[in-house]
Amino acid sequence: MESRSNPLSVRGLTHSYAGVPAVEDISFEVAPGEIAALLGPSGCGKTTVLRAIAGLLPVNPGVIRLAGIDLSPLPGRSRGIGMVFQNYALFPHLTVAENVGYALSCRGWPRERKRARVAELIATVQLQGLERRLPRSLSGGQQQRVAVARALAVDPALLLLDEPFAALDRALRIELQMALIRLQRTLGITTIIVTHDQEEAQTLANRIIVMNKGHVEQVGAPTDVYDNPESLFVNRFVGHASCIRATIQAARPPLTTLKVSTGETLTLSRASNAIVGSSVVLTARPEQVALSIEPSASSLKAELIMSIPHGPSVIHTLALADGTEIRAIEPRESAVAAGASGNQVFITLDVMKLHVFPAGEEGEEAFN
């Protein structure tokens, strides 16, 4: 099968329903052969963007270019795009082979050529022997593979997938995610996947486009989005982050001193743009929180609420003196013996990796 690696450029994409904007000024780039994830909560506009790229929705204003070609004047069927819908949208009265070859039949492919192409696709998604089955006799995972094969039938320049794993159980979801990565790398096809699952996005994508309320919040590699969130919303949506209210007490680069909501003082090894006296939100990932049973110069008092084993790790939920909940994660073999719920412990935050955001940003209302 021919490799189809084409760059995608989306600029100023806007779409409204009944005069109400669903997405506004959406812009991003996807490099040739990348998997990009449109990530965000339900209703943020991810599927609207996907359907607009596919030509199923009008764009006004906005420009979508694939391999340098403006797709705006082209109907969906002429854009060279394959799409896998959330419910797979298989024809229930057609067999696996007939579903996979449907687009080829519509294009008038000769019978023998179509048969060879369908056999190639069915082998690619590992469904040999199921060619004559109807969709209702297939498992969810098998239906998903049929939908992918059908989308690939016309050798698309771009593959779009709308929540393709949402209806599958966890074990099957992981198995098919790995299968999709292998297939995508083999074909080299530029791919966009819509998901609300941040773990799925980080597993599958080379690039994550975080959306919220019809806008793009941040675009970047999974590690960049996780390690360097540009907003409190991104920090809390992509991975867990505990939030602590604080006030800037002093700012002398490269140090920032905070008075946290419990009255304790904490000094960060990084500068902050916030002015002295302003209210901020300090965020910490679970892996940036260390427990001890003895205090240190930079530790905060906390009460242990619960400790839960999670595979090779232990997840602790703690409360600061003012009730602010903090989550910490430790390797099970080196976890601190914090004792029973209600015990006092001390937490030390990794001051090199914490983030500070202005109070009042979206995401603050979703405190633990």
Short description:
By secondary structure, the protein is α+β, with helices and mostly antiparallel strands. 23% of the residues lie in helices and 34% in strands. It has 9 helices and 20 strands.
List keywords for this structure.
single chain, 368 residues, alpha+beta, Rossmann fold, OB fold (Dihydrolipoamide Acetyltransferase, E2P), 2 domains, five-stranded antiparallel β-sheet, elongated
Describe the structure.
The protein has 368 residues and is an alpha+beta fold. The protein has two domains: 228 residues, 3-Layer(aba) Sandwich (Rossmann fold), CATH 3.40.50; 124 residues, OB fold (Dihydrolipoamide Acetyltransferase, E2P) (Beta Barrel). 23% of the residues lie in helices and 34% in strands. It has a six-stranded mixed sheet, sandwiched between helices. Strand 1 and strand 2 form a beta hairpin. The chain is elongated.
